[in-house]
Specification:
Two copies of one chain form a homodimer. By secondary structure, chain A is mostly beta strands. Helices cover 5% and strands 47% of the residues of chain A. Chain A is globular and about 40 Å long. At the A-B interface, strand 1, strand 4, strand 7 and strand 9 of A face strand 1, strand 4, strand 7 and strand 9 of B. Strand 1 of chain A pairs antiparallel with strand 7 of chain B, so a sheet runs across the interface.
């Protein structure tokens, strides 16, 4: 009934793809743990999401690019990415797993406003 | 426009009350950073919330009590507390600040189902 676990457990050392684990999934909100090991978005690819995303890096290091700026995220650094704000992951650490926690919300509202 | 900061910045060493900072506040979801330094719920007090709460301890240590069990949370440990599941904070570390990240959601649904 009460799902519990540890965000830093079972960190894979190397993966061909990013590992995405959905921790909460409701009509209002989706919470994901994402583990990257050197992954980046494909060249020229941009996320353009209907949902808002609040995301924090908890371990490792990542670089997030927007059309007009780039941000390096270290453990504890968070950013709120509004729906349809284009972004991509330029790089993640190859030295250690990068653990992200992402909260997606407001998708219905955003879609309705399109 | 894009609010960003660090969850581990500006950690107070000692506070008379818990420090609650609201990072995201929308009709669907509320995200809070909570900093405890030895705080606990008052004796006999139980949280009985209309919203679901997904909560993780990111630094420090805390003990969370439910009516039928008790859980020690260390960094990375998370738990999903359904709406109206009574709980209280038995203790938090006095040696260092305990940093919680809490995501509240589904309040409207829970309230409508009462």
């Amino acid at each position: 009934m009460m799902k519990s676990a540890n965000l830093f457990a079972d960190l894979p050392g190397n993966l061909p793809e990013e590992l995405i684990e959905i921790l909460v999934d409701t009509p209002d909100v989706r919470i994901e743990r994402i583990v990257s090991t050197g992954h980046a978005s494909p060249p020229g690819f941009w996320y353009d999401q209907a949902e808002n995303e609040w995301v924090v890096v908890l371990r490792g290091k990542a670089t997030l690019a927007f059309e007009d700026e780039e941000r390096v995220l270290k453990p504890g650094d968070y950013v709120l990415i509004p729906a349809h704000r284009k972004h991509r992951v330029t790089s993640t650490s190859e030295a250690e797993p990068t653990v992200w926690l992402a909260v997606f919300f407001g998708g219905k509202t955003a879609a309705g406003a399109e």
